[in-house]
Design goal:
By secondary structure, the protein is mainly alpha-helical. It has helices at about 10-25, 35-45, 45-60, 80-100, 105-125, 125-145, 150-155, 160-170, 175-190, 195-215, 220-225, 235-240; strands at about 35, 65, 70-75. Helix 1 (about 10-25) crosses helix 3 (about 45-60), helix 4 packs across helix 6 (about 125-145) and helix 9 (about 175-190) runs antiparallel to helix 10 (about 195-215). Keywords: DNA-binding, Transcription, Transcription regulation.
Length: about 240
């Protein structure tokens, strides 16, 4: 885990940002225990701003607190996946139709550039860069929709959506990651078509495919894929013994 030291100014804010990015990058994996004392040592601060940061991240849904067991990075459940993907579909369908109404060549060029950078990163095997650009692409769409009240209402969802995007990218093998990057051009094509129904359909398919990839990575899916009791070997056995 590569957490960087943070200065004293606005410590709680900076700790929150550092931990959030560590979760998004996978340095703090789903299910990882978050011990205030150890995190404070790594970040070079006291436990108080760490506690405040964990409270904020719990409100964002990125951290969960378990009775008598402290805090851990929230793991994706099947219900989480269904709720996030269905809500994201609804919101981003609204977004693409808004963007479509104000579409121009400059906007298309900006989005195409981001997608090309994403494809290039996927071909280089840089999964972290693909995730960053995937997030940027969808954030650009939200910005282009130019709906201030929507942005205010959904601000608390942004962390969950970003977590969804990270998990969806992690679930891809290198070849599939390139194909996934290229699918963003289909979204641009659909918006550029001027057909609202086509734009909504393509966005729904894009999100649905990501959700399907993640089903086996939910807590329930991983439990089903786990070996039967007594069958653990290798790394699994070592982990179970800890």
């Amino acid at each position: 885990m590569a957490l960087k030291s943070v200065p004293d100014l606005n410590v709680a804010d900076r700790v929150t940002v550092e931990l959030r990015e560590a979760i998004f990058s996978g340095d703090l994996a789903p299910g990882s225990r978050l011990v205030e004392r150890k995190l404070a040592e790594r970040l070079g601060t006291s436990h108080i701003p760490v506690r405040e940061a964990l409270t904020r991240l719990t409100e964002e849904g990125l951290v969960e607190r378990l009775p008598h067991r402290g805090a851990r990075v929230a793991a994706l459940t099947s219900r989480d996946l269904e709720e996030i993907s269905s809500l994201r579909t609804l919101l981003e369908q609204f977004v693409v139709v808004r963007v479509q109404a104000e579409w121009d060549a400059k906007t298309e060029a900006r989005l195409r550039k981001t997608v090309q950078q994403m494809v290039d990163a996927a071909e280089r095997g840089s999964s972290a860069r693909v995730f960053e650009l995937d997030r940027r692409f969808h954030e650009q769409l939200w910005e282009l929709a130019d709906h201030r009240m929507l942005m205010t209402i959904t601000s608390q969802l942004r962390s969950r959506i970003t977590g969804f995007l990270r998990a969806a990218n992690v679930a891809l093998d290198p070849e599939a990651r390139v194909a996934h990057a290229e699918t963003h051009n289909l979204i641009i094509d659909a918006i550029a078509s001027g057909d609202p129904e086509r734009a909504r359909t393509v966005m729904a398919e894009h999100i649905g495919e990501a959700a399907a990839r993640l089903e086996s990575h939910t807590e329930e899916g991983e439990a089903e894929a786990s070996p039967a009791p007594g069958a653990a070997t290798g790394a699994v056995a070592v982990e179970a013994a800890r």
